[in-house]
From TrEMBL:
InterPro entries attached to this UniProt entry: PUP_plant
Domain of life: Eukaryota
Keyword Transit peptide attributed: no
GO MF entries: purine nucleobase transmembrane transporter activity; purine nucleoside transmembrane transporter activity
Compartments it resides in: Membrane
Region annotation Disordered: where it falls in the sequence: 1-20
Family to which the UniProt record says this protein belongs: Belongs to the purine permeases (TC 2.A.7.14) family.
Name recorded for this polypeptide: Probable purine permease
A Pfam family per the record: PUNUT
Transmembrane segments: 34-55, 67-85, 105-124, 130-151, 163-182, 197-220, 232-253, 273-296, 303-323, 329-347
Keywords: Membrane, Transmembrane, Transmembrane helix, Transport
Membrane-topology descriptor: Multi-pass membrane protein
GO cellular component: membrane
Source organism of the structure: Quercus suber (Cork oak)
Amino acid sequence: MFLPVQEAEEANSPGHINATNQSTISQPRTFMQLLRMTIFTLFVLSGQSAAILLGRFYYDKGGKSKWTATLVQVAGFPIIIPYYLLSPPEKPTTNSIHRNEPSTLILVLIYVSLGVLQAANSMMYSVGLLHLPVSTFALICTSQLTFNAFFSFLINSQKFTPFIINSLVLLTISSALLVFQTNSMNPTGNSNVNYEIGLFCTVGASAGYGLMLSLTELCFHKILRRETFTVILEMIIYQSLVATCATLVGLFASGEWKGLKREMDEFEQGMFIYVSTLIWTAIAWQIFNIGTVGLIHEVSSQFSNVISVLGLPVIPVLAVIFFHEKMDGVKAISMVLAIWGFISYFYHHYLDDSEAKAEKRDVKEEISMRPLLKEVTNEQDGLKNIYQKIPLSTETNFMSTEAIPLS
């Protein structure tokens, strides 16, 4: 599962830093920009939902390889390469000319570290989806916002507002209701141990998700110091390449590759559906990645992350339709709390956007008033200079002459 990156700075001035850290959703947008935002949002919601549902389908119909389920989450990145090659080149700016680029060794360390972390997170997601109902899995995954805010507070010095705190409490309660739910709600009939393993891995994957977001933001802020469309795509490709290599090592080291042929033959829907399921799962994750990158480029990474979380409460409804899972009272309450937490989190960013827009408007007004103020100041200075150049006697005679009445 690919993790969207966070916004980065492109300049060192406080005003520019504040502007880049704020969402640009409040700026005026053209029809084509709004259309692209809508398309990318649909990519995020549809890609994520389809990928998770296909992953559940793979397990339900006889798939057993956790490493294979992990591999399809990260190995579809070649689909993005044409998108990367066709993307417009980065326009040089004054900041980019004077910016010190990180060394190759530093970049390799970043890609390797984040790629290995991505592979570990994807593996935990695969284990969690194996042992949990898809609705329970999706609702627990909403806790990623909680972990993201927590790690951002520790690593990126993010401040907690009342709306963020309210969101974190709601999302924590939403996940806790499902974590402490009895195993009888599991339709797969797994043992208590497997059910608890699924819960632990899903929560761990959500924590890893939040940690990775914060580390990626730290890398962009402190090392790369820029966030262009090209740089984001490079991060996806190289990071996914490392995650794919790490997953392949796990697949062969665990020996699961030996049973793939038998798994394919025993798949309930046949070999063709087996291969198609894996291919379309990989494609769905990359559709999600493209939508994520598109929203980062068009709006902001925070907005992209919130949209990805928005799609998670929708998955339980789809699970009821496609997998006939039961929507009991606990799951319904958990879903309502998750949506409420999302709204609170989104409203916090809406207030930030409004504040940023007001600050930007004040700055523009101040800049527009500078020529007029300068003109008035120059005029006052000119009158002052003229007044100072008039001799005192002349001023006195002028006043006396003005006081003589006309006959």
